Amino acid sequence: MIEFSKKIASFFLRAANSSSEATTLKERYKQFRISLFIAITIIALIPSTLLAIFGYFQYLNLAQKQTTTHIQWHLKYVKDAFENHIKVLSSQLSSATDRLALHNFEQQPITDAIQQHMSNEVNNLIKIEFVDEQNHPLISSLPASALPKSDLPYLIQQASTKGYALSDMQINDQKVPYFTFIIRPTPEESERNLFLVAYFNGLSLENLIQQTNASAMEDVFIINTDNVLQTTSIFFGKSQQHFPFTTSKDKINITTTRKSWGMGDIFYATTPLSGTPWILVLVKDGPVQKKDWLTFQLTLVLIFLACAMGSFFIIHQLVNLLTIRIRESDTKRMALLNEVGHTNRLATIGKLAAGVAHEINNPLAVIDQKTGLIEDLLEFTEDFTNKEKLHTSLQGIHSSVDRCKIITHRLLGFARKMDTDKERININTIVEEVMGFLEKEALYSHIFFEMQLAEDLPEIWSDKGQLQQIFLNIISNSMDAISQSGVITIQTSLKAKDKILVEINDNGPGIKPHVMEHIFDPFFTTKETGKGTGLGLSITYGLVKKLGGDIKVHSIVKEGVTFYIYLPINTSNDKESDHG
Amino acid sequence: MDEIHVLIVDDEVEFASTLAERMELRGLTAKTTNCGQDALASVNREPPDVVLLDLKMPDIGGLEVLDAIKNTDPTIEVIMLTGHGCTVSGIEGMEHGAFDYLMKPVDLKMLLGKIQQAYDQRMNGHHGERNE
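YS: structure for the whole thing
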């Protein structure tokens, strides 16, 4: 089971992973969520579904068993009651006959009187008549309507041995169902062998059934041996209709049979009624009452649906929570990896920068000394044409060497924490100086500078050279981005009590999002090979951080880029600690 | 004032020779060597007042040369020249008995000032304290 579930899980995870490569991260999480949701839902719903199905059939089975037992028990009860009734009826009839003076029965008025008398005791008696063994009617009470006597001889024979006999239900010419009850009076009291034939209305049988059938839940009726209905059935119609199923001849053991009938199943049991030509039938539809069954099914479905909905909701929430947590930790890990990567890259560039700076330092020293020597020699030489010009050129070389010196020192400082050279600085002055550096180049490229410098900004305690480097890097970067004709706006403002904000905005093509992620990475450049080292912004980032500031970029593609440089003002208290 | 004898030890030949020439122009006596071995030989042959010693050299490291010079004659003052752009190696040199350290590229005026100071110390004989 565990193995199986593992397989399922790995299948879903693989499904989520395999299709992920071409899709974005967001879709990947979505797919993961959906797969997880489906997997957990299936796993959660299997047991409850099985339970519902098992419960359904178990209930059905139990109900069926109960029904079977109930039918058997009830049929037995009805059978006993009915047989008892027949016995009572028979004894009533015979006693009534016995009490009459049989000698005088041939006289019509006496026969009528007998009937009158018996009608008082026995219900639904249509008429009586006396016949002899050969079925010759001796006398009959009124009305003397003609009744078919087809099977009377057989019945009389039966009555002569058993004492009484009953006929099947028949219908007279007035469409009234009736049956015959034949009694053989006690032979000693009679001179002749004669029989009393009592005709009963069929309704009496119906009444009898109704009296014995205590419960109205079942359909109880009587059929004859030819499966012809003797009384009205709910399922199979009125008397004389046909009962379609086989019947049992077993008088003691009653078995219940299940058959499909109409829309559903019915259960029925049959038993012969002793002393009669009839078979008692009990029919019940379904193991349970239709209404109860529907209620049960509805309840089951509702409970199942409620459980499923509840599960759906909980699983949905859980999966959401899980996905969010995983996503969060993924994001954190990615950020951490990025940061580590960034730090590593910075360390690498640091080492490289230190190496480069060191190598450049030596030739720089030679240039410095050679220039110095030339200057020395010039001083000891008499005036000649262009001496002054030569002197100025040497000055130029000197200042260039100085600039290089600053750069190499900065590069070394990038690698090692060199002491920054802090002083009181007006940020606007520095910005203006840097703009001055770049003015000519800007004019050449038709780039215009727009300065929006806030007046009365507090002086900040920072490193002038490094600040120059920062602005120089960013502005020349912007100029490279614009390439031909554009505007660069430099804005200074007081952001908070202890912070100055310098915004440098260009209307160049902007930075694409994927470039944005790496903008401060060392060696990352979008410039043509050989045109950029990919160090400018990386060094700038390092410098701003070293000065205790922060740098942010905002880019709108096709509209331009804005760099936000936050610089701490640093009070005189900080000054002390900086020196220490 | 007596002429200050300076020995410039630097594997960068052009740098050493140019610096020597400029010192000569300013009235100092300057010699150059381009490796540690030569420097030690020169010190033995003709002890200078002040040695300008590059920390990074192909054969023997600057610190070893410094130790060897101080072993030969503790009164000879040594000024370290570092190209590392970091103070650590310079400070290390001073722990080994160097007079001071300067970072390359070096300003001549500042260098001359340092040489003068070192020479003064050698003449006044304050070296003993530092050496032991």
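YS: worth flagging: Residues 66 and 131 of chain B are 12 Å apart (CA to CA).
IM: good catch. Also Chain B has a mean pLDDT of 82.
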